[in-house]
Amino acid sequence: MHSRPVVNVLDWGLIAYKEAWDRQEELFKKAVDLKIAKRNGETEEIPEHHLVVCQHPHVYTLGKSGKHDHLLLNADELDEKEATFYKINRGGDITYHGPGQLVVYPILDLEQFFTDIHQYMRYLEEAVILTLEDYGIKAGRVEGLTGVWIDGDNAAKARKICAMGVKSSRWVTMHGIGFNVNTDLSYFSHIVPCGIDDKAVTSLQKELGGPQNIQEVFGHLQRHLQELFEFDVK
After folding, report:
1. Lowest mean pLDDT among 4-8, 104-108, 191-195
2. Is 194 annotated as catalytic?
3. In this structure, what DSSP letter does residue 95 have?
4. Are 159 and 151 spatial neighbours (Cβ–Cβ below 8 Å)?
5. Is 192 exposed, middle or buried (0-12, 13-18, 19+ CB in 10 A)?
6. Which of 47, 52, 75, 98 could form a Cys-Cys staple with 31, CB 3.0–4.6 A?
7. For residue 195, what are the CA distances in angstroms to 59, 60, 71, 199, 213?
8. Residue 120: CB partners within 8 Å, gap ≥ 6?
9. The dihedral formed by the CA atoms of 153, 95, 21 and 13, expressed in degrees to the nearest 10
10. CA-to-CA distance for 52 and 34, rounded, in angstroms?
11. SS3 state of residue 74
């Protein structure tokens, strides 16, 4: 019988964006280097999988395909908002992370699951959609856009609750999802979120009318990720 992959769940708590990025890069590089060594017959070891969960202090990150002018603040205004800004190596445009947002970084070797980056993205979205269903919220996708949306089929009402941006090399993934749970949504007004200027953003707190337990939300999300990707955790 084929044994299921085992994933380490790493809770980094509230962590500065740059520190989390550096730690991700370290885990990512270790997995990629191991795969190269294995291919060259230098080791039998296989990369470990990690599911990082954390929150960040206020930060804006710009993906490789993003435009700098989608950040609507100058350096002084960033300071005023106690926010930082990084240009980073994931796909996608600009997004915001901050306290109350559930950030999840899967560092997986997809060769131990399936080799299809689109399926990977759809599974991440699906896990969030199923989590929202647990809270009685119907969400889905919008044709041609990544992430998870509420009322996505109604242009006037469509609002994004979860943004995504990933990087992969040799089928190892990094970066991931920003799921607005108790997020201060005013910070999104200082950017053109994900390069989309005609749609709103929302949070679980806003949709349900009160703050939610972020650990509980992650519990639901983790369960759905385990079911979709068919992995066990340690």
Report:
1. 191-195
2. yes
3. E
4. yes
5. middle
6. 47
7. 16, 13, 10, 10, 30
8. 110, 113, 114, 166, 168, 173
9. -80
10. 20
11. coil
- How many Å apart are CA 177 and CA 110, to the nearest integer? 17
Query: Model confidence over 124-155: pLDDT tens digits?
Result: 999 999 999 999 999 999 988 889 999 999 98
Q: Which residue has the tokens 């039998």?
A: 44
* pLDDT over 80 at 199, yes or no: no
Domains along the sequence of the chain with CATH: 6-227 (3.30.930.10)
Q: Locate the DSSP E strands across 136-225.
A: 139-142, 145-150, 159-169, 172-180, 200-201
Provide the 8-state DSSP code for 94. E
Q: In what helix (H) or strand (E) does residue 130 lie, and over which residues does it extend?
A: helix 117-134
Largest CA distance in the chain: 59
For residue 162, the cross-strand partners are: 148, 179
Residues 125, 147: contact at Cβ < 8 Å?
A: yes
176: left (phi over 0), alpha (psi -120 to 50) or beta: left
31, 162, 191, 194: the active-site residue: 194
